[in-house]
Write a structure and sequence with these properties.
The chain has 179 residues and is α/β, with parallel strands linked by helices. It has helices spanning 13-30, 46-55, 106-116, and strands at residues 2-11, 36-42, 60-68, 81-84, 94-102, 122-130, 143-147, 153-154, 170-178. It starts with a strand and ends with a strand.
Length: 179
């Protein structure tokens, strides 16, 4: 039996780019006159982070935090594991934590606990996608790109078992089985 997954577009590259411009404007306005440290959660948020970073007008430094939540599954592992640490000193800094998807809320909650323990002056969050239906805690992001239904999505940096990150749009997977 051969399983093939075909991506079906949900959000076009144009729609994503338009929303990112608006998000960047909101973030620029919030942090006007301040420098921020943007912390990206790898791997899924890398494309979203890079595109957002290019649109920010406030002084910005970048660091990355690696957290494992999904592995090769389509549902989040429990609990998320931090597998790579930050290089920057966060003490007294304005931190913007960026992730690809806010699903159960466990990954962002874990990352916020980790970052808060390093005494930043402020900590805000921005996510590309929000799946409110799956939230198992009360976590809410400060900035949200898109709210989506409870579907497994790929593209624009998000993957399934390491595949489909390169798609310039967001898609859901349709699986076909061939015998």
């Amino acid at each position: 039996m051969n399983n093939q997954a075909q991506p079906i577009e949900l959000l076009s590259a144009r729609r994503i780019a338009d929303r990112l411009k608006n998000l960047a404007q909101e973030i620029n306005q919030h942090y006007q006159g301040q420098e921020i440290l943007l912390v990206s959660i790898l791997d899924g948020a890398i494309i979203f982070t890079a595109d957002l970073l290019r649109l920010l007008k406030v002084p910005t430094q970048l660091d990355c935090l690696r957290i494992s939540s999904y592995g090769d599954s389509t549902s989040p592992e429990s609990p998320p594991r931090i597998t790579g640490s930050l290089k920057s000193d966060l003490q007294g800094r304005h931190v913007l934590l960026v992730d690809d998807i806010l699903d159960t809320g466990k990954t962002m909650e874990r990352a916020c606990v980790e970052i808060s323990s390093l005494n930043p002056q402020s900590l805000r969050t921005c996510v590309f996608l929000d799946k409110q239906e799956n939230r198992t805690n009360g976590f809410e992001a400060d900035w949200i790109g898109f709210s989506i239904p409870n579907e497994f999505v790929v593209g624009y940096g998000l993957d399934y078992a390491g595949r489909f990150r390169e798609l310039p749009y967001l898609a859901k997977l349709q699986t076909y089985e061939n015998t």
